[in-house]
Amino acid sequence: MDAQITIVGAGVVGLAIAERVSRDFSDVFLIEKHATFGQETSSRNSEVIHAGIYYPMGSLKSRLCVEGKRLLYDYCKENDIPFNNCGKLIVATSGDEIPIIEAIQKTAFNNGVDDLSIIERDRIAELEPSVFALKAILSPSTGIVDSHSLMKSYETGLLNNGGQIVYRSEVTGIRRMAEGYEITLLDSDNNIFRFTSRVVINSAGLTSDKVSEMAGLGDDKLKIKFCKGEYFRLNPPKNRLINRLVYPVPVHNLEGIGIHVTIEIGGGVKLGPDVTYLQSNIYDYKVTPSKQEAFFKSVRKFLPFLEYDDLSPDMAGIRPKIQRQGDPVMDFYIREESERRCPGFINLIGIESPGLTSSLSIANYVRKLINI
Ligand SMILES: Cc1cc2nc3c(=O)[nH]c(=O)nc-3n(C[C@H](O)[C@H](O)[C@H](O)COP(=O)(O)OP(=O)(O)OC[C@H]3O[C@@H](n4cnc5c(N)ncnc54)[C@H](O)[C@@H]3O)c2cc1C
Questions:
Q1: Which of 210, 221, 231, 278 is 20 to 30 Å from 85 by CA-CA measure?
Q2: What's the average model confidence in pLDDT over 225-236?
Q3: Relative to the CA of 185, which ligand 1 atom is closest?
Q4: Pairwise CA distance, residues 182 & 176, whole Å
């Protein structure tokens, strides 16, 4: 075998896995089609370290988020990655939202998030004088992280462990052999290369379903639907009025968690993301200026100081959803595929939020699935 372990995709999750497995194995290769890491979903998100509040009890999303959050804070401290444990409020702006936030607190408690408190108007006014809410959940363990520095640090770790990264190379074919897999690569000069690997880890984000199909593991239930999320920016100087993350109550089936207010490490504030399932899987990162009205109306409920011209279009990201529009929430799909006759092939599909928060716990989880 040319490689022991090949990981497809250098987003934050593929990088974390590569760094983790290269501690225990030699000949680890990370393959990425772009010229550098994190050119897709991993650099088009809210950069929030989620507490693990919303996800169904016992799901991978819930378990890996709660564990990943702790690991990520420790990792950031040890490796000088900029982060801010700023906390977050989930606000009830009408009477009928109060039972919803009470229910959220219970779900979170069952998921091991036991540090939430429900606070009243006077305490809300102390913490966020510019925010309107009747009641709010305060989540002290939520924060933000500089995702670029985090990915750079994972990449450095991988290289220091003796692993290798191959950029500008797209995996175009995977053939199962008696032992291991033959992988076909197409580089940016249209050269084709083939090599063999005992283990293949598919961490290809938006095209992870396609990479799985290459190995003969097509599955209609695991087809990715591109689900776009757009952001608007809160123009200075009003960005200074917000000190922590502020969220409305979430959409009922977690297609999104509501247009929220996210602060950035550099002090900026953005609003979003909204939720739009795209008609087809195209990389559409355009921000729609005509959505400004909807963003304004949705956030003004809890930011009464907001005026229409305080917003400007910012950026967009695309969620790799396996949940179809209107369906119940789906969990991360992370499996070693021996049962489907592909031993040593590990699939990660539908790694939407909280994938960034969970990158280190996902990496540990995947490490345990490797059996060579
Ligand atoms: C709008 C939005 C907001 C979000 N906010 C948060 C948040 O606040 N907190 C949080 O925890 N999570 C958040 N997430 C989720 C988080 O961004 C993702 O879970 C995470 O970035 C997924 O990382 P990844 O490595 O799996 O995928 P990606 O970053 O998509 O990386 C996959 C990589 O695989 C490469 N690739 C694909 N196919 C091939 C191939 N055939 N050959 C070679 N390379 C290939 C791609 O080029 C890409 O670089 C958000 C997501 C979105 C869209």
A1: 231
A2: 97
A3: 42
A4: 6
